[in-house]
Design goal:
Rossmann fold, globular, 2 domains, Arc Repressor Mutant, subunit A
C-alpha cells in the first residue's frame, strides 16, 4: 500500500488554476510516486515525459507553441520528470503557461540549483512550488499507527526515511549504500563549477561528522586544501541538491551574540550514516544525541513546509559559549527548544538569553515527548 504524502491534497487543490506546478526534492525521495497517486492524475489522461530520455530532450529543444500542441494532443495533464535535464526548460514551461492554459503541467526536479535558476525569471507569477522531503514521522503515523512509529525511532535515527528504505527495512543498509553511491551525487557532480568532485565527497564526510555543530569554513578549507569560497559554494550546491541544510544563528545585533555562525544538518540521517559508514544501533552510539537533534529539526522543518507555517529556524549561542539548540521565529515571536535524547536530562534557558529576550516560551524535546511537539507544530 502506498505511503500517502502530506502535500497531496494541497497539490490537488492547485490543479487547473493556470499555474505550473513545480515539485522539488532529492533523487529517490518519491516525487514521481507522489504524482502518480494524485487522484486527478488517475482520472484524467496524463502525458508523462522524462527529462532523462534523449528523445524527450530533443523534442522540447527550441520548442514553439505549435510543437507543444502537437506533442500534447488531447492530454489534459503533462508531467515533466527530471525537468532540470531539459535545455531552457524555463522557456518551455512559459510556453505551456501562456498558450496552453487549459492544460495542467507538473514539473519535478532533483536539483533546485539548476531548476530554480532556469525557472525563476520565465515563470514569475506562473508557478506553484513545493518541496518534497523524505517520508515524515506524521506520514508514517497515518500509514501505520502512532505507537508503531514511536517504536521505530531508533531505526529512523540510523536508517532515515527514504521511501525505499522504509518499505524494505531488512535491506536498509545495502540500499542506502547503493542510494548514496549511485544516485544522490549524480546531479551534484554534474553542476558547473565543480572542478574537484573528490573534494566535494570529502567535504560531505567532514560535514557528516559535524552535524549539530557550528561549521568553521576556515577549518574545512584547511582540511580539504581548497579556498573558503570554494567550500562555501560546494555547501550551497549540496543544499540546493537537498542533501544538507544550514541553520543560521539567531541574533539582534547584541555584542555578546554570534552572528555569522551556521550549523549543518542532513536532510536524511540514513544518507549521513552511509557517508561515515556507521550503521550501529543507536543504543551503543556516541552520536545518539546529535542524531536525535538532527531528526527533530528535520521533522519540524517538514511540518513547517507542508503545513505552510512559514516559520524561520535558527540556533542561538553567545560569546560565553551558552547555546540553545533551536529557535523558531514567526511574526516576530520566538520559541526556544533544547533537544535531549535522554529524557532524564534537564535544561533551562540560559541567563545570557533571557537577559536579551526576557521570558520566552521554552520546551525541552526528548525521546518521550518528541511526537507531541511534531504533531502540534504550528
Amino acid at each position: 500500500m502506498a505511503i500517502h504524502r502530506q502535500i497531496e491534497q494541497i497539490i490537488e487543490n492547485d490543479f487547473f488554476k493556470g499555474k505550473i506546478i513545480v515539485i522539488l526534492g532529492a533523487r529517490q525521495v518519491g516525487k514521481s510516486t507522489l504524482i502518480k497517486i494524485l487522484p486527478t492524475c488517475n482520472t484524467i489522461d496524463t502525458l508523462w515525459l522524462d527529462g532523462e530520455n534523449s528523445d524527450v530532450r530533443q523534442i522540447l529543444k527550441n520548442a514553439n507553441s505549435e510543437r507543444l500542441k502537437q506533442l500534447v494532443g488531447n492530454y489534459r495533464i503533462v508531467v515533466i520528470d527530471e525537468a532540470q535535464k531539459i535545455e531552457d526548460i524555463g522557456s518551455v514551461l512559459k510556453l505551456f503557461a501562456d498558450y496552453n492554459k487549459d492544460i495542467q503541467v507538473i514539473a519535478s526536479g532533483s536539483s533546485a540549483f539548476e531548476l530554480r535558476n532556469t525557472l525563476n525569471e520565465p515563470l514569475t507569477g506562473r508557478k506553484f512550488e513545493y518541496k518534497l522531503f523524505p517520508i515524515s514521522f506524521t506520514e508514517m503515523v497515518k500509514h501505520t499507527n502512532l505507537l508503531q512509529e514511536i517504536r521505530e525511532l531508533p531505526q529512523r535515527l540510523v536508517y532515515g526515511y527514504y521511501p525505499e528504505i522504509v518499505t524494505s527495512p531488512n535491506d536498509a543498509e545495502r540500499l542506502l549504500r547503493f542510494l548514496s553511491d549511485s544516485y544522490l551525487y549524480k546531479d551534484i557532480f554534474l553542476f558547473k563549477g565543480i572542478k574537484k568532485p573528490e573534494k566535494m565527497l570529502e567535504l560531505l564526510k567532514l560535514l557528516a561528522f559535524q552535524i549539530g555543530s557550528e561549521v568553521n569554513f576556515n577549518e574545512l578549507s584547511n582540511s580539504l586544501k581548497i579556498d573558503n569560497q570554494t567550500v562555501e559554494s560546494y555547501i550551497e550546491m549540496l543544499e540546493q541538491a537537498f542533501v544538507i541544510y544550514k541553520l543560521p544563528g539567531y541574533h539582534t545585533n547584541q555584542r555578546t551574540e554570534l552572528k555569522k555562525s551556521k550549523k549543518i544538518y542532513f536532510n536524511d540521517l540514513g544518507i549521513r550514516n552511509a557517508l561515515i559508514n556507521d550503521f550501529r544501533p543507536i543504543e551503543i552510539r556516541n552520536d545518539a544525541g546529535l542524531l536525535f537533534e538532527n531528526y527533530v529539526v528535520n521533522e519540524l522543518r517538514k511540518q513547517n513546509e507542508y503545513n505552510r507555517v512559514y516559520a524561520n529556524f535558527y540556533f542561538w549561542r553567545n560569546t560565553d559559549q551558552r547555546e540553545i539548540d533551536l529557535i523558531i521565529e514567526k511574526n516576530g515571536q520566538i520559541r526556544a527548544f533544547e533537544i535531549k535524547w535522554n529524557s532524564a536530562k534537564m535544561a533551562k534557558l540560559t541567563k545570557g538569553f533571557t537577559n536579551i529576550y526576557g521570558e520566552t516560551e521554552f520546551k525541552v524535546i526528548n525521546n518521550e515527548n518528541f511526537f507531541e511537539i511534531i504533531d502540534n507544530f504550528t
